[in-house]
Every structure is written in structure tokens, then in C-alpha cells.
Specification:
This protein is an all-alpha fold and 351 residues long. The protein has 14 helices and no strands.
């Protein structure tokens, strides 16, 4: 497999743009409860999009999945279920905190756990300390966490400065305390995606053996991971439909705009899937330190989500200090992606 860290960083940037943008179409949905548009978007992001993409890029997809080791399939699916809990609460984080603050808090813990725990469990984390490239990678991770911290502090200032009415105007269901607790839980559980990709390596290897180009090797893995995520979210949305009496919204033709709601929910779902489509490609080009892909992914998501937050005037009415901290946090995050890219390049260039 040919390593190309700079291409890998670019692919992670595209994935981060998709992830930082996916929630925007949901803002166009009218008259549906959260569980309805989240479930519709989920069908497209967790079932339809990964199956279509994997089928087109892996002509022997179902042969790959049927021949994969049972343990790899189970563990990949299991981590997908656990990650699904994080994905579920991620939607709630956006609901209560908005794009800027929600992304920063949720993804801070996600970046830390998702990047460092896989090599720790594999026993390879200590090897990083013996190589200049490894130190560069760890420095990039630390800079990323620092950037997330700066972005989070900007969010705290925003919380202090805006009135209740101003916060509600920017984020309709703004609830800071509830949102923070949801974001913390979301960040920890969402890190299971990194473990899912590790568990799915035998599936990816089998895909290559059956003729799949190595850059597409993770598309069959995503089918299994996202099936696990779909399971978790389907159960939760079904429970909400039962308790809120909203299951009829899918076919309620008495409300205008039902077709529009389906279109925008589907658009959100497909956009969401694209983040991991490009993430999966990016990991194949990061070389031996592919675990650093998770940090890059998180950093780019926060950068683009915060830019969207500024564009949507979620920070309107805040002080120059708060906006300056946010912009500084974005700059630090961009710097972290460059450092990680250099670290991977140094490793690849070392004979």
C-alpha cells in the first residue's frame, strides 16, 4: 500500500467538511419531530449510502462479507453499536448547544480517546517515543486538543455573554447544562468508531485480496460498522416515537412540505455518510501512523463546523474576545493537522 500523508490529510479535510456540514439540511425540515427526521436521515446514512457505495466499488461485496472472519464481523458490528450511541447523542448535542459549541465539546474527548487508545491497546504507543516522527504525531495530537480547548473556552464565554433570548434565537432548544453532559457522553462513545476500523482490518484485507483497490478497502467495513450504528439509533427513535406518539409523521399528508422534509433529511444522511467515505480513504494513505487519522478527522470537523457557526450568526452578540478565541482555536486546529501530516511524512520518508 502506497503511503501519501499529504493526500491523506486532504481526504480527511474533505471528510471533515462533510461531517461539519451534515446537520445544515436538517434545519430546513419543518413539522417533524427530532426522532422522525433523524431516523429518515439515518436510513440514508447508515444503510442506503454505504451499501450503494460499497457495491459500486466492490463488485464482490457480499462474497467479501460472507467470507470475513466471524470475530472481525462481530467486533466491527459491536463497536458500531457502541459508536451509534455516540452518534445518537451527537444529534442531541447539536440540538442543545448549536454547531460551534456542540462540535467543540463533543469532539474534544472523541479526538483524545479515539486517537490514543487503539495504539495503547495494541502496545505500540510506546514506540512513538523512540522516533522523531512519533514525537511529531504526539505533538500534533496535543496541539489539536489545545485547539479544541480554546474553542471550548470561546463557547463558555458565549454562554456567559448572551441572554437567554439571544441564545434561543441562535439555537432554538439551547440548554447549556444538559448539552454539556450529553456532549461528554457523546465524545466518549463516538471514539468507538476508531476501534471499529481497527477491528475491521481483516475485512479490509479480504477486500484487497478479492480485487478491491486499496483506497476503497474500508467501504465494506463501513457497511458493517454503520449497520451497528443503525441498530442503536433505530431502537432509540422507535422508543421516542412510542413515548411521543410521533410515528404517524412519516405519512402525515395533512402537513405541507412532507416531500421537502424527506429530501432534506436524505441529503443530511448522505452528507453525513460522506465523512466516513473520505475518512476511510484517508486512513489508507496515512502510513504506519494511521491511528492519527482520527485526530485529523476531529480537527477538520471542528474547523468547518465553527466556520458554519460563524456564518449562521450563532456568535452574533458575543464579544470580540469570544470571537477571537474561536478564531484562534480554529487556527490552532489547522496547525495541528499540518504537524500530524509532517509526522506521517517523516515516518514514510524514513528508510
Amino acid at each position: 500500500m502506497e503511503a501519501n500523508p499529504m493526500l491523506g490529510v486532504f481526504l480527511h479535510a474533505v471528510g471533515g467538511l462533510a461531517a461539519g456540514s451534515f446537520y445544515l439540511p436538517f434545519k430546513k425540515v419543518r413539522g417533524w419531530s427530532w426522532e422522525t427526521y433523524w431516523a429518515v436521515g439515518g436510513v440514508f446514512s447508515w444503510i442506503i449510502a454505504p451499501l450503494v457505495a460499497a457495491s459500486l466499488l466492490n463488485p464482490r461485496l457480499f462474497e467479501i462479507l460472507s467470507s470475513a472472519p466471524a470475530a472481525a464481523l462481530f467486533n466491527t458490528y459491536l463497536f458500531g453499536v457502541l459508536w451509534g450511541v455516540g452518534g445518537l447523542t451527537f444529534g442531541l448535542t447539536m440540538r442543545y448547544l448549536g454547531l460551534s459549541l456542540g462540535y467543540a465539546l463533543a469532539l474534544g474527548l472523541c479526538a483524545t480517546f479515539g486517537t490514543l487508545l487503539p495504539p495503547l491497546f495494541e502496545g505500540t504507543l510506546g514506540v512513538l517515543l523512540t522516533q522523531a516522527s512519533g514525537w511529531a504525531i504526539l505533538l500534533g495530537v496535543c496541539v489539536c486538543i489545545a485547539g479544541i480547548g480554546v474553542s471550548g473556552w470561546a463557547g463558555v464565554l458565549k454562554e456567559r455573554e448572551l441572554s437567554v433570548a439571544e441564545k434561543a434565537n441562535a439555537v432554538a432548544e439551547y440548554q447549556f447544562t444538559k448539552g454539556v453532559w450529553v456532549a461528554v457522553f457523546c465524545g466518549i462513545m463516538s471514539a468507538c468508531m476508531a476501534f471499529a476500523f481497527q477491528a475491521g482490518k481483516p475485512i479490509a484485507g479480504l477486500a484487497i485480496e478479492m480485487g478491491t483497490p486499496d483506497i476503497w478497502q474500508n467501504t465494506p467495513v463501513l457497511v458493517v460498522v454503520l449497520l451497528g450504528g443503525f441498530t442503536t439509533n433505530l431502537i432509540w427513535c422507535a422508543l421516542l416515537h412510542y413515548s411521543n406518539g410521533t410515528v404517524g409523521e412519516y405519512l402525515d399528508t395533512t402537513k405541507p412540505g412532507m416531500t421537502r422534509n424527506y429530501i432534506f433529511s436524505a441529503l443530511a444522511g448522505v452528507t453525513w455518510y460522506l465523512q466516513f467515505f473520505f475518512y476511510g480513504m484517508g486512513t489508507t494513505r496515512m502510513g504506519e501512523y494511521d491511528f492519527s487519522s482520527w485526530t485529523l478527522h476531529m480537527a477538520f470537523i471542528i474547523v468547518f463546523s465553527n466556520l458554519w457557526g460563524l456564518w449562521l450568526r450563532e456568535w452574533s452578540g458575543t464579544s470580540p474576545k469570544a470571537k477571537g478565541l474561536l478564531q484562534g482555536g480554529i487556527a490552532v486546529l489547522i496547525l495541528s493537522t499540518l504537524i500530524i501530516g509532517v509526522g506521517n511524512y517523516l515516518k514514510d520518508a524514513t528508510p
